[in-house]
Fold:
Amino acid sequence: MQQNPSSEPIVSLRDVQKSFGPLRVLDGVSFAVQRGEVLALIGRSGSGKSTALRCIDRFEKVDGGEIVVCGHRVDRPDVDLRALRQDVGIVFQSYNLFPHLTIEQNITLAPCAVKGMATAQARDLARKVLAQVGLEEKLHAYPEQLSGGQQQRAAIARSLAMQPKVMLFDEITSALDPELTSEVLKVIEQLAADGMTMVMVTHEMGFAKGIADRIVFMHRGKVHETGPASILTSPTTPELTQFVGTGNLKS
Amino acid sequence: MSIQLDFPAVLERWPSFLAGAALTLELAFFATVLGALIGTLAAVGRGSRSAAIAGACKVYVEAIRNTPLLVQIFLVYFGLASLGLKLSAFTVAVAALTINVGAYTAEIMRAGFEAIPRGQIEAAEGLALSRLQIYWHIILLPAIEKVYPALTSQFVLLMLASSVCSQISAEELTAVANYIQSDTYRAFETYIIVAVLYIILSLVMRAGFWGLGLVLFPRRRRLGTPL
Structure:
């Protein structure tokens, strides 16, 4: 039924509005992500970038505008949430691995419960996605036995196991020290090289510059400046100039 | 003044004591299993988006927690009888104890549910799990784990409180003691023995819950974290 010709974007937001009470968080946000593209959402805290990301997977309901993700009309109240979320993978800042389950069980749960995959097949899949993030040896460990960076990589593997068409990353390295951050970013680089479509909210400007096909700079609930990664080195608006000039651009 | 204790006179009734202790344990077992089930459902119900369901669960919990167990037992006993239902004292006792412990379980489980971080649920939603699957796979066991000591204490307390079922002539340990002491005129000895038997039953239950914990929470077993 739903078609995704290569010309149609995987994610598109058009004039999206969102308020929390009197606070207008998203004020007419529009951007699109093409298949295989890596888009970095940057901006100050409170600029609305995380909210914009969460709207894509309908963790926030929008007040107005249109969001289409893999053919799903996310802004509509009758959107099939479970179908949407099978197409979209999301990874959070706080990993959110399930503490009572082993890494293998964390990964196999959704493929088995949601897609009805056979246990043996799901276990093979768990090995495969863990190898992708370099954690094969942690198959039977519990989350609390892993470092923060390892937990985040396991969370990425858990999301990959659902074979999403697009991955969302919500400040996934903000809780990690520089060393652990770099091991997580290596995984993301590999995903990008494999052609995964990704939208990431990040404070790692150097990383965004190196990996993103396009940058969306948000300011006060609006897309203030957008363009290729080069806008980080030659910004055209004073706000982005100030944002990248505050020591953010180190790689 | 000296107390003359004659335990042999009372202890020769040991088969009755054992039968009473067994029945007490049986009462506690059924009421614990059923009460855990009802209490968990009531705790889920209190978080329901339907105001009617949430309200009904709240009324149930508050009504039970603010009335004495003995009155609840009489209500069930005479209530069912006036409806023409002829049930055994044992069945009535299990029903009343279940209703009672269910309300306390609901409050404990609610605390457990509320202790699950929001991020856990969002992660599960992001993986396309349904509401029921999230409760079953993500919330239930960690919630039980968080409140397990409170929960098991409540069930041991229930076993001890089941002694008031002697009032509707369920032949549990206290009822047995009542007629043994009236037969032998050795009340002090009888209740000393009964007290010791209750302590043993408590220890048996605590050991059971410890073992159950090992099965329910394999991570604790693997990592050696005490509950």
About this structure: Helices of chain A lie at 49-56, 81-87, 103-115, 119-132, 148-160, 178-193, 205-211, 238-245. The mean pLDDT of chain A is 93. Chain A has eight helices and ten strands. The longest helix of chain A spans residues 178-193.
